[in-house]
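Page 37, top half.
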Amino acid sequence: MDTINIEEIQKSSQLKKEKCSEAKAAMRDILSDEQKEKFDGVFDNVVGKVFKGVMMKEKD
C-alpha cells in the first residue's frame, strides 16, 4: 500500500474522489441493505456540498 499524505490529497481532485469512495465503501460494509439505500443519497449529497465549498474557497 502506497502512503499518500494529506497535502497530496488536497492538491488532487482525483485523489479526493478516490479517498471518498474508499470511505463510502468502508462505511457501507457495516450497514444493512435498507440503510445502504438511504446512506448512499445522504453521503453523496454531503460530499457534493463539501467539494463545492472547497472549490469556492480555493477560488477566493
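Page 37, bottom half:
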Amino acid sequence: MKYMNFVWLVLLVSVCAGRSSAQLATGSATSQISVTPAGIGLTLSSVDCDVSDVIRGVTYNVIFDPAGGASIIHPADNGEATSDLGVDIVGDPSQNLVVLFELPASLSGSAGAIPISFGSTSGVRVEDGALFNPNIRNTFNSGTGGTVSLRLGFTFTVPASALSGDSYFGTILTTAAFTGT
C-alpha cells in the first residue's frame, strides 16, 4: 500500500507539473520614446546704420552708448547724425551662440572709397553693455530671454574730395550658430 501511495503521489506530481508548465507563457513588448525639442531656432535681424551730414576731411568715431541705448557720433559739432549698426539675434533661451562678423575695410561710393575700421572694443552687447571685439569670433549666451543684441562702432574719415550728396555703402555679413553646449 505504501508503494501504491507513492505511485499515486508521483503520478499526481507529474500531472500537476505538466499542467503548471503548460500554463506558463512568455511574451514581450516594445515601447518607443519620442523627444521633440521646443524652441524657435535661430533668427538674425540686421540693424542698418545711416550716417548723415558729415564734413569733408573730418575723421569720425561712431560708438554705441549703452547708458543712452543708442549710437552716437563724435564729433557732432555741425549737426552730424547716426543710427545704430549691428544685429539682433533671437534663439532658444540659455544657449551659447558663436557669432562672426565679416567687416568691410572700406565703403564704396560715387566718389571712390572711404576706409573704415572696427576697433578691438567697438562691439557692445546691448543687454549688459559688455564690450567685445567684432574682428574675431565671439561666443554669447542667449540668456533666459533668448536674445542677443549686438551693436558695432567704427571709425572713418570723409575724403576731402567728397561732394555734397555723395553716398558711400558697405555690407557686414553676420553669421551665428548654436555651439551645441
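Margin note: Residues 4-13 have pLDDT under 50 and may be disordered.
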